[in-house]
Amino acid sequence: MRRGKILAIKWGMNPNSSSLGVDVTFLLVGATVLAAVTPVIGALLRWRRAVPVEPPVEPAAR
Amino acid sequence: MSVLTTLRTLGTLAVRGVETALAAAARVRQARQHPPRRARLERFGAILQLTVPRALVFVDREFARRALAVDRPAIWAGPETGLGDAPLSAPLEAHLQLTNRCDAGCQGCYTGASPDGAPGEWGLAEWMRAIDQLADAGVFHVALGGGESTVLPWLGELADHARRRGIVPNLTTSGLSNLERLLAISDRFGQINVSLDGLGATYARVRGFDGFARADAAIRALRRVKREIGINVVVTRHNFEELDRLFGYAAERRLSEVELLRFKPAGRGARAYAELRCSDAQHRGFLPAVLAAARRHAVRVKVDCSYTPMLAHHRPDRALLAELAVYGCTGGDFLVGAKPGGQLTACSFAGPAPPAAPGGDRPRVTDLARYWAAPGAFGAFRSWRDAREPCASCDYHALCRGGCRVVSTHTAADATAPDPECPRVVDAAARRHLPVVG
CB distance B141–A14 less than 8 Å? Predict the structure, then answer.
């Protein structure tokens, strides 16, 4: 059965009130390390108790 | 590596490990008291928030279906899209310029802050309403700043309100004033970064006054009470060569991160832009210099969205960039800004967003839900898909999105123009001026 996929991970928080900061530390170690870390993140998310999403999001008109 | 060096390195790593674990435990306790928003549905699936480690995780529908108690939500009525195919259902974060008051007078201030501030600045009540609207829309974080927002006696109260509404507040400060007030409320913020554009004399050269000692004192004081302290560094041609030393400083002060910001032509920065912006050679050398410094000093590094063209110049693995959510301009998509009077902007460097309808009023941040999906919302910030060459054929265009709209507006007088400082754009312009040989 398909388990679904992590599309992207935006690490950390951005305190910078002017620009959107992105963590590029992983560029130091490359895709291999990220490939090892991603399943751990997936496991953490799957392990969490599922709760309803609040509030329900209506589809925005495009 | 000598035995002594090895032992020293292991010791440093051990200390950092313990500090990180303690900080994570504190975040878990805080999250139990005021749970942050855990998830938000999107047409591609969902965005899930983790507290430990701190991350926003973008997942497809199948993953979301298993991780959340959802089956067939209304937002999934249509076909499943890819991440980046369309704007998000709401921003991830909002950058709130709570005030334009500041006594520092930095020569490159992107907001033109002054002791008098801006006309019609909002107070606590208005900003609390804004936080409510943002929370209802599904925003995860707010980045609070100014001017200098620590001059506001209600800053801690606003941070508390954000927490109660499930939004994590983060803060940028100059560290030059109101330190005692900030220390007393520092635990209410997820991350606090102090602006530090150079060490010693370099700080004065970039900012126009000697404030390094005060900023350093604030950094040390904050670090004594909180682990999640970093520095924001606006990179100019005068401090570029000092980047390695700045990372060394961050390591010495045991800071959690260095965030590098490209100098922007906004506010007083527009007047100083030609003198302070980095050279083309510095832009091309940015990524190797930054990664070398981060590796050497073992400090986490973040770069602002406007640097993505400079990252793309070195042709990193596109899939890796996508998996790290390294995008260029996501103004009016991943982020929005708000001016001191509540005016909604695509990002903090941009002017107020255009009205939703011709002749209408410009939106305020409290109009976000109504404005977000309006045709033409955020103008040029959302029209990056219509980019012309050399962006249109660039392998990194879907990530970079044409570079910085604010730089394009200032330098090319056209918000839709390719970022004129992107190395690819610079090279294309140079080729156009080459004489024809034949």
Answer: yes
| pLDDT band, residue B402 (cuts 50/70/90) | very high
Report the gap between the CA of A40 and the closest CA in chain B (Å): 11
DSSP B95-142: EEE---B-S---TT-TT--BTT--TT---HHHHHHHHHHHHHHT--EE
Residue in A13, A18, A31 closest to B141 by CB:
A13
> What is the rounded distance in angstroms from the CA atom of residue B53 to the CA atom of residue B209?
38
**B 245-264 → A contacts, CB under 8 A:** 257, 259, 261-262, 264
User: Which one-letter amino acid corresponds to residue B89?
Assistant: S
User: Residue A49: its chain B contacts at CB < 8 A?
Assistant: none
- Please state the ipTM of this predicted complex: 0.91
Query: For residue B437, is pLDDT > 60?
Result: no
* Three-state secondary-structure class, residue B281: helix
Average pLDDT of chain B, as a whole number: 94
Q: Is B398 exposed, middle or buried (0-12, 13-18, 19+ CB in 10 A)?
A: middle
The answer for A 2-21 residues in CB contact with B (under 8 A) is 2-21
Kindly list the residues from chain A whose CB atom is less than 8 angstroms away from the CB atom of residue B93. Answer: 14, 20
Chain A: closest CA distance from residue B437 (Å): 41
Question: How far apart, in Å, are the Cα atoms of B137 and each of B33, B132, B179, B299?
Answer: 22, 9, 33, 34
CA distance B178 to B364: 29
Dihedral of alpha carbons B244, B250, B251, B255, sign: negative
| pLDDT (tens digit per residue) in B165-197 | 999 999 999 999 999 999 999 999 999 999 999
Q: What is the pTM of this model?
A: 0.93
Q: Inter-chain contact A20–B334, Cβ cutoff 8 Å?
A: yes
Closest-CA residue of A relative to B146 is A17
Q: At what angle do helices B124-137 and B155-164 cross, to 10 degrees?
A: 20
Which strand (E) or helix (H) includes residue B309?
helix B308-312
What pLDDT sits at residue A53? 67
Q: Which pLDDT band holds residue B134 (cuts at 50, 70, 90)?
A: very high
Tell me whether residues B305 and A3 touch, CB distance under 8 A.
Answer: no
pLDDT of residue B172: 96
